[in-house]
Amino acid sequence: MNLPKSTLQSFGEVIYSFSGLDLLGECSRRDLPIERLKTVVAWYISQFRPVIFGMSPFNPVLGETHHVSNGDINVLIEQVSHHPPVAALHSTHEKENIDVTWVHYFSSKFRGAYVDVELKGKKVLKLLNRQETYNMDQPRLTVRFLPSPGIHLAGKVKIKCSETNLEAELHVNSDSYIERLGSNNNRSIKGKIIESSSGNQLYDIFGHWDRTVMAKNVKTGDVEVIYDAKENITGLKPPIVKNLQEVMGSESALVWSEVSEGILKKDWKRAGEAKRLVEEKQRESLKQREASGESWVPKHFSVVKDGKDWDCSPLQPTVPRDPLVIIEAQGEIVN
Predict the structure, then answer these.
(1) Measured between alpha carbons, how far is 127 from 135 in angstroms, rounded to an integer?
(2) What are the protein's UniProt keywords (predicted)?
(3) Pairing status of strand 65-70 against strand 212-217
């Protein structure tokens, strides 16, 4: 029932794993504010990936990290809480001076035939060269059992930039069995770009997040493709270790290496035993902290908990390059 990787790896992949245009860097390269927002929308949509029902990654241990570089993009994620599970992400783009922070946690409600999962936490993109900050929220996940099992993205999201007075409103349609009968709504997305102060609509957004997404200028009627999933996420490559000596001991790939190898080789006994050892080590660490009265403190983020809400800030202004890198098919490091 487990994928051979940690939730932190799945979480980080949506930022560093791409095969086409560097959409994150492109967000800052566009000259006009409206063009930058359209590219931010495209980058946001590029993070949507199909989820396999019944297969889940490992629940990260407290203090686990995942640190990967892809070209100019460096990503660092840390599990800052285990109960409840909370992860913090920091990513920086060296060339374009872009900063991304994201604290990720969730709450779920059982509703009979399905479970409604609210993905919570702040997600902020800063184009530092442009002095622009984009705040964005996340769609829900629906885990449906009947009539056809599946996990689906759904809900409304907003991407807003106060400095440019522009925002995008997107509605992600569920790809559940019932909603797609007799329609073409499978993984569809609709929305608009407006001026925040006046509400004046500038663009219609429409398409499918696993295919293409278009933007239509409401004034001129011109239509353009702003996102092509085939170009951006086809043939994704996993990170490889460039220098094993530099890999942190808390790295997901090391923490779960024996478990992942057992799953890949279909050696379920080995995988199960390795998973038990990881979990026992975590429980033993907790006992030792409780016995000494020591509180666990994240290494890479400062954490603030306000009731049920969490917020995290990176302790360093930029993410350094990492010995885990993305490699092209020819064996060259992606630039």
Answers:
(1) 12
(2) Lipid transport, Lipid-binding, Transport
(3) unpaired
Q: What is the pTM of this model?
A: 0.90
DSSP at 246: G
* pLDDT for 174: 64
Which DSSP helix (H) or strand (E) runs through 287? helix 268-292
Domain ranges for the chain: 2-239
* Alpha-carbon gap, residue 200 to 36, rounded angstroms: 18
Q: Distance (Å, rounded) from C-alpha 142 to C-alpha 153?
A: 6
pLDDT in tens, 178-200: 444 434 457 899 999 999 999 99
Place of tokens 């990290």: 65
Residue located via tokens 């992942």 = 260
Backbone angles phi, psi at 153, to 5 degrees: -85, 140
Of 168, 171, 327, 155, give the one whose Cα is nearest residue 237.
Answer: 327
Q: Which residue has the tokens 């696993």?
A: 210
Which residue matches tokens 């900063």? Answer: 99
Half-sphere exposure of 95 (CA within 13 A, CB side): 13
Look up tokens 């995988």; give the residue: 271
Domain 2-239 bears CATH identifier 2.40.160.120: yes
Token pair, residue 296, equals: 């666990």
Nearest to 163 by CA among 36, 39, 42: 36
CA 201 and chain centroid, separation: 28
